[in-house]
TrEMBL record:
<feature type="active site">
    <location>
        <position position="54"/>
    </location>
</feature>
<keyword id="KW-0444">Lipid biosynthesis</keyword>
<comment type="function">
    <text>Involved in unsaturated fatty acids biosynthesis. Catalyzes the dehydration of short chain beta-hydroxyacyl-ACPs and long chain saturated and unsaturated beta-hydroxyacyl-ACPs.</text>
</comment>
<dbReference type="InterPro" id="IPR029069">
    <property type="entry name" value="HotDog_dom_sf"/>
</dbReference>
<keyword id="KW-0456">Lyase</keyword>
<comment type="similarity">
    <text>Belongs to the thioester dehydratase family. FabZ subfamily.</text>
</comment>
<protein>
    <recommendedName>
        <fullName>3-hydroxyacyl-[acyl-carrier-protein] dehydratase FabZ</fullName>
        <ecNumber>4.2.1.59</ecNumber>
    </recommendedName>
</protein>
<dbReference type="Pfam" id="PF07977">
    <property type="entry name" value="FabA"/>
</dbReference>
<dbReference type="InterPro" id="IPR010084">
    <property type="entry name" value="FabZ"/>
</dbReference>
<dbReference type="InterPro" id="IPR013114">
    <property type="entry name" value="FabA_FabZ"/>
</dbReference>
<dbReference type="GO" id="GO:0019171">
    <property type="term" value="F:(3R)-hydroxyacyl-[acyl-carrier-protein] dehydratase activity"/>
</dbReference>
<keyword id="KW-0963">Cytoplasm</keyword>
<keyword id="KW-0443">Lipid metabolism</keyword>
<keyword id="KW-0441">Lipid A biosynthesis</keyword>
Length: 168
């Protein structure tokens, strides 16, 4: 029997993401199903820092931040799927972003609804299909690839690289 899990509030979200204001871009998880999908929202307000410069006379949420919001949603799904919360040594990195398409601007007062689906997990790389809508209209879509790393992994990689002879 498949179970669809409901709602995470902002305090629960902070247990799965290291991001904090102004870079925490997920306000609520509406639903999620382990290993499959998640739906979350970002309430876009007139008080967002980026609107001061993007653009003062016509505020538009930067596309890279919409993609980041979808990636943060994907990271939450990954941790929920693994049944674990990250520690201070765990980081989720982008491994790739493909087929990004921006379909409509997002501005103050909009609610960005992100829907992310896991397409596959292979060799430590998670691949997702992500879309974000406003009032049912597609705002952005992309395929995201991410990997989870710990600071211990990075230290091992740095040591291995320093031990590899030049030209090897």
């Amino acid at each position: 029997m498949e179970t669809i899990n409901k709602s995470l509030d902002i305090n629960q979200i902070k247990q799965y993401l290291p991001h904090r204001y102004p870079m925490l871009l997920v306000d609520r998880v509406l639903t999620w199903e382990s290993g499959k999908t998640i739906t979350a929202i970002k309430n876009v307000t007139a008080n967002e820092e980026f609107f001061n410069g993007h653009f003062p006379n016509k505020p538009v949420m930067p596309g890279v931040l919409m993609v980041e919001a979808m990636a943060q949603t994907a990271a939450i799904l990954s941790f929920l799927t693994m049944g674990q919360k990250p520690d201070e040594n765990t980081i989720v990195y982008f491994a790739g972003i493909d087929a990004v398409r921006f379909k409509r601007p997002v501005g103050p007062g909009d609610q960005l609804k992100m829907e992310v689906e896991i397409l596959r997990i292979a060799r430590g790389i998670w691949k997702y299909k992500a879309i974000a809508t406003v009032d049912g209209q597609l705002a952005v879509e992309a395929e995201l690839m991410c990997t989870l790393r710990t600071t211990n992994d990075e230290a091992k990689s740095a040591v291995a690289a320093s031990e590899t002879p030049a030209g090897a």
